[in-house]
Every structure is written in C-alpha cells, then in structure tokens.
Design a protein that fits this description.
Length: 274
C-alpha cells in the first residue's frame, strides 16, 4: 500500500480521474444541503471573522461556500490529494475567492502551526480514518484555546429506504466490511462523542440531523449515500448486488418512496487556559 493510500484510509483516490464521476458526486454531496450545513455550522459556534480550517477539503466546494458566506473569515483548506487541491485552487480563483489558502497535508501530521484556528471543520472525514484518536490529537493542537472542532459524519445503521430493496442490509454490511478492511468505519457516528471527549475536548455534544429524500430528491439522495458504496465493491460483489441496486434505482420513479439518513454532528471546545 502506498504512503498516500495509508494516510487516506478507506478513501479511494483512484476514483478521482474516472470521467470526473467522483468530482460530480462530491459536488452533489456538497451542494444538496449547503444552506442547511452553513446554518448548522453557525449554530455550532462558527462566528464572523473566524480563522477556519476545512480539513480534507477535497475539491473545495464547502471551503468556497464558507468564504462566500463570510468574506471576513480567514480560511484554510487542507487535503492530501494534489489533484483535488489543484481543482480547488482553480475554482476559487475562477470565483475571485483569492483569500482562501489551500495547502497539501494530512490530518495526522498537518504542516501548520499550533494554536491558530478558531474553528476546524471535518466533514465526512472520520469514516475513512484508521486512527481517529491520532487525528483528534492533532486537531486539538491546531486550535486556539477556546477554539471549536465540528465533525460531520455518518453511521450506516441510520440509513434506511422504504420500500426497502431486497438484500439492502446485506449490501450495506458488505460495504461496511470492505471499508473496515481498508481502515474505515461506516459506523463512526455513534463513536464521535467518546472519541472527542477522550482527546481532551470540553463541552462535547453530539446531535443527529435527519436528511430525507423529500429534502433533496430521491435521485440526489441515492447518488450521495450509495454512489461511494457501489464503487467500493468488487466486480463479484457488484454482480451479487445487481438485484438490490436495480430495486434501489427503481425508487426514483416511485413518488411514495422515502429514504432517510442520520448525519452525526459532534462538537467540542479546546479548554481555555486559566
């Protein structure tokens, strides 16, 4: 396994260049509920003029939205993938958001000075990490005393479709096992509170935000929640899952179908010095 793959955990960087499909998925994922997400960050302590770090910023969709939302903010986006960072820089420049600082680095050993950020956002990162505690220790050091961490991630036991396609639970369990072998955790959501508190953060709280297919549309919901899963499967597993995926796709044309996902949002504060 390459050094990049080791640090990336269960995220497959090899998908990035295949027809731009992963970029499209990431963009859809970011744009589907962006207003809700920005409102959530404000409720979790993000303030005007904050110095913000967007961890694993990828192509910078959320980073740019943070800059548009608050032109007074000092924003850094950090990612491990150079191709995604180049895309993020070019899009920021195209949108005249030249104040964003995009840097190359990994969450375990970020090339940044300690005690400098007011707010650090980790969006759908922790499900891929082999060593989440090590990542949280690094995040703690980067925050100013009184600074906040906000983690936004998933737990597959909070994903449901109705009518439920045959074999759907087996499909999600198979993907979870594959991701686990690669160092990831599809059920990280329930562990976030424990992990954040174990890293020394204070005033830790965890909420679950429910997003449904009626909020963003069934097609977008399935693209976001199942697109990554399908790409995790081998050809053999895809053949086994053909009926499940076909029944799942048919929900798009069913006006009475529903789908739900629970997104876990964990926050914590680095204690101020007395």
């Amino acid at each position: 396994m390459s050094d990049l793959s080791e640090k990336a955990g269960s995220y497959n960087f090899n998908d990035i260049g295949k027809g731009g499909e992963e970029l499209k998925r990431l963009q859809l994922q970011a744009s589907a509920s962006i207003d809700l997400e920005i409102s959530m960050l404000t409720n979790k302590g993000l303030k005007k003029g904050d110095k913000i770090l967007d961890l694993a910023c990828g192509p910078g969709f959320i980073t740019r939205q943070l800059a548009k939302n608050d032109p007074t903010a000092d924003i850094t986006g950090m990612d491990l993938n150079l191709e995604l960072l180049e895309f993020a820089r070019s899009e920021a420049k195209r949108n005249s958001l030249n104040s964003i600082n995009f840097i190359h680095g990994d969450v375990y050993e970020p090339p940044l000075k300690d005690n400098q950020f007011d707010f650090i956002y980790a969006r759908l990162l922790f499900q891929h990490l082999k060593e989440p505690k090590k990542a949280l220790d690094a995040i703690y050091r980067l925050l100013k005393p009184g600074g906040r961490i906000c983690i936004f991630d998933v737990d597959d036991d909070w994903l449901s479709l109705y009518p439920e396609p045959s074999g759907f639970k087996t499909f999600t369990e198979t993907v979870g096992e594959i991701q686990s072998r690669k160092g990831g955790n599809r059920k990280i959501g329930r562990q976030l509170g424990f992990l954040v508190e174990s890293s020394g953060f204070k005033n830790v709280a965890v909420d679950v935000q429910t997003i449904s297919s009626r909020d963003i549309g069934m097609k977008a919901f399935l693209d976001i929640t199942l697109g990554f899963k399908s790409r995790m499967l081998s050809e053999k597993d895809l053949v086994k899952s053909k009926k499940t995926l076909s029944e799942t796709e048919s929900l798009i044309a069913n006006p009475k179908a529903w789908a739900f996902v629970g997104v876990f949002i964990a926050i914590g504060i680095r204690e101020k010095k007395v």
